Hints:
Low-confidence stretches: none
Distance between the termini: 31 Å
Helix content: 40-55%
Mean pLDDT: 90
Largest sheet: 7 strands, parallel
Number of strands: 19
Radius of gyration: 32 Å
Shape: globular
Number of helices: 23
Strand order of the largest sheet: 8-9-7-10-18-6-19
Amino acid sequence: MSLESFFTSIFGSKASRDEKRYRSYVDAQINTLGESMAAKSNDELRQAVADIRADIHGAIAPAEQEIADLKAKIETLPLDERQPLWENVDKLEKGINETLEHKLEEHMPAVFAALRETAARFARNETVTVTANELDRDLAGKGSDFVTIDGDKAIYNNHWIAGGNEVVWDMIHYDVQMIGGKVLNEGKIAEMATGEGKTLVATLPVFLRSLTGRGVHVVTVNDYLAKRDSEWMGPLYQFLGSTIDCIDKHQPNTPQRRAAYACDITYGTNNEFGFDYLRDNMAMAPEDMVQRGHYYAIVDEVDSVLIDDARTPLIISGPVPKGDEQYFNEYKGNVENVVQAQRRLVNNILVEAKEKLASEDKDVKKEGALLLFRAFKGLPKYPPLIKFLSQEGMKNIMLETEAHYLQDNAREMPAVTDPLYFVIDEKNRSVELTDKGLDELTGKISDPNFFVLPDITTQLSDLEHIADKEERQARKDELMADYAVKAERVHTVTQLLKAYTLFDKDIEYVIDDNKIKIVDEQTGRIMEGRRYSDGLHQAIEAKEGVKVEAATQTFATITLQNYFRMYHKLAGMTGTAVTEAGEFWDVYKLEIVEIPTNRPVQRVDMNDRVYKTKKE
């Protein structure tokens, strides 16, 4: 028995300890309110929630008023005197969040019990009748299919359209789903098995947090789920007085999207939330912004969003000046000549390396290892080389040789790379031409320095002896203009070399509808609308003979990882998170809690078995 198994047998696993703690809370704090909630009329049930909402708002109202007064005062002060007041605002905001946490913890049992009772009434009754309030009349006036007004009464149906299909409400929260709701409210990740009702679980913390009026964001992986879930769960929230909308139903930078963010609960996709943040940062006036803060978010399929796609940047780009003046097609032929020469050279090097590595002579074998490493530095993605390196021991020989030549700050590396036309660093995705490669690249061009950047510093200093200031400035302008042209030329060639040697069709990208589309290396899916930056996409377009689009520049960018770390409290749901527990904690400080299934699992999960091939 391992040490871990020994301690688990005594103290239990983390999952069992968590379950015991959360179950005792649900039994003692929430289930005991079931009878009192069931005894309330529909109007009394709504009033109980309204009283809790009023209590929460009343607890933070003085601080919110103080913040409003400070912000008004800030606008009257010079810029250099505003910082101390903004620091006071930050302190007050922190105090508000602490007050809200205490209040939400205090009211959580009653709110969870009220929401479960509401779900039960919708499930057991075809209609639920209440005294109509302003929100009811507004929903009916907008044509909502689940509520009608009859005099002073609002009649809620238990069936409505969600995701294009009619649904009949038939769900009531189980105790294990109450556990999941508490876990999510605490800002943790709830790992739930498929089919255990993650969408329904989310209603508990989402509705509780919506009572603060500070905005709750429910993040899904695609727009269909965002729209469907907002329509499916929406009537439950709206019956109890919370407003809800989905940003994916509205165009960016519109009053409708701003209104969606102003709701108590806002559904949407991770990318739309991120892009709205970027657009807000580019806004010229506060009224052009749509988001109003980052208080609380629940992320569905949290491992996919916060781990797999976490470092994928969201980018807003636009055309650059003179974006159509590109030289990719002009220099494509020169680059192809160099790449073909390198391919012939690497093929010959590899043939010689194979012969020498097969030798019994130690020195000859050492020469073969050098040749193998040289071939790798020349074309690391060359198929015959990859095949040879897959043979037993070959990759280790190459790595040992690499370690030898990298020591002492790569002092001996020129012995490896000088015979090549260019040198590739596959890890950093960089390509550097050698002198031999520059000669091949220049070809029949009369100017041997056509693709060489001049030493601009030396050239400018050589002009200092010119006494006439106007002539000196004119010469400097001429040199700088020439340097800019050559810099663009060198950059174009470098990107073309990358396109030909580091990016393969049907692996890193595909051609679809005569356009280059990037393939996600994690999922293998096409990333619609994404383009490589810094001219690389144009280089690949030139390589494949499709239309070279205008160059773009980045106006705003953020990764999903950095975006979601801005929220005061972040939670998530998934079926598979424990395997990523370390990364979730290190990056987001998110703890994972395994939620038990409502019924015992009958399936027996055996340990994985991994088999080797004969070659391995």
